[in-house]
Write a structure and sequence with these properties.
- This protein has 135 residues and is mainly alpha-helical.
- It has 2 domains: 34 residues, no CATH class; 90 residues, no CATH class.
- The protein contains 5 helices and 2 strands, in the order ββααααα.
- The chain has a two-stranded antiparallel sheet.
- It starts with a strand and ends in a 7-residue tail after the last helix.
């Protein structure tokens, strides 16, 4: 039975490991075609990186490790890791700025409340009315 190169179509000897015309390994392509399992962890990690960045990061790292076995999903895993990391850094910055802003607003409100407490309303009302001249 004749064997043909899967890359260039050149007729090969049945025992040939490499194509003499294009140099592509014939055994490696057969293994890759037989190992057609999908890397669902990389897909899940990529999708979760937009919604739940921490879970997306975890799933993407697992997907990247699994991509070494399945030869699929490496790009999605790397994209999931990058997107998750960027979103987590941006979220941390936004939360930090929000906490500082709220703290400043609370301090200003307390200072304003303290300035009202320093003012004695009794002195204001009682000093305006002269009780000695009332007849």
């Amino acid at each position: 039975m004749a064997k043909f190169c899967t890359n260039c179509g050149n007729e090969l000897d049945d025992r040939a490991v490499l194509c003499p015309k294009c140099g592509i390994s014939q055994n490696q392509q057969v293994e890759t075609n037989n190992n057609s399992s999908k890397n669902s962890m990389s897909v899940a990690g990529f999708i979760l990186s937009f919604i739940f960045p921490l879970l997306g990061l975890i799933f993407s790292i697992i997907g990247l490790n699994k991509s070494k076995q399945t030869n699929t999903g490496r790009g999605l895993s790397i994209a999931g890791i990058i997107i998750s990391s960027v979103i987590m850094v941006i979220s941390t910055i936004i939360i930090s700025v929000s906490i500082v802003s709220v703290n400043d607003a609370i301090q200003k409100a307390q200072e304003q409340a303290n300035s009202y407490n320093d003012y004695d309303y009794n002195d204001y009302y009682y000093n305006d009315y002269d009780y000695n001249n009332y007849e």
